[in-house]
Amino acid sequence: MLQHGVVELLLVAGLFLVYKLGRQLATGHTAEAFHNAHRVWEFERAVHLPGEGAVQSLLLHGDGLVHIANTYYAAVHFPATAAFLIWLYLRRPAQYVWARRVLAAVTAAALVLHLLFPLAPPRMPAATGLVDTARLYGPSVYGSPATDSPSNQFAAMPSLHFGWALMVAVGLIVATGSRWRWLWLLHPLLTLLVIVGTANHYWLDAIVATALLGLALATIRPQTSSGGTAISLRSPRRTATTAGGTQGSLVPARARAGEQALARAGR
Known about the structure:
Mean pLDDT: 81
Number of helices: 12
Radius of gyration: 24 Å
Shape: globular
C-alpha cells in the first residue's frame, strides 16, 4: 500500500513537473504571441463575447477585492488540484485513476496548444485597455516576461487554471452523493471570474479548456470499484424506485432466501 502510494505521488508530481517544463518550451515567441493576442481579441469582439474589462472593473472597485482575486489566482490552482487527487486516492480510489488520466490528457493537449499557438494574456497588449492587477496590487506570481524564466507567460490558451478547476468540480460531483455536491461548480466559476478579471486569460481560453476537458471526459470514462463503467453525474444513492421497480424487489435478500428455503422444505 505504501509503495503504491509513493508511485502515485511520483506520478502526480511528474504531471505538475511536465506542466511547468512544457510551458517553458513555448518561451521566446513574443511577436507571434502578441499577434495571436490581437487575433483572439478581434475574434471575441466579432462573435460578441462579453468584454473582459467588465469583470475587471468590478474587481477594481476596491483594493481588497482585487487583492483577494490575485491571491486566489496565485494560491488556489495547484493546492486545490493536489488536494482533490489526494482525497480521491484515499477515499475514492476507483475514481482517482480516472481523474488522474483525465487531468494528464488535458494537460498534455494544452501543452501542445501552448507550443502551436503562443498567446500573450490580455494584461499585456495595450489595445485591450486592461491592467495587470497582480503587478499593481499584488501578489504576483510572474515577473517581467523578459526575465521570468521559470514560467511561460505566453501560454494563455487554453487556461489550465480553468480546465483543472472544472475537472476538480466534475470529479467531486461524480465521486460524492450529497445533494449539495453541485456547489463544487462554484470553484470553476470563481476561477473563471478571477482569471478574466485579473487579465490573465481571455474568455476564449476558458472555452477551449472546456472543450479539451469535454473530449477527455468523453474518451476516458470513470469506473466503479468492480471495474465496470462508473456512475453518471446523477446521485449514486439508489431510491426504492430505482433499486427495484416493483414492490416485491424491496424485500430484503435474507427474507427472500428464507422463503425459498421454506418452499424447498415443504416439497
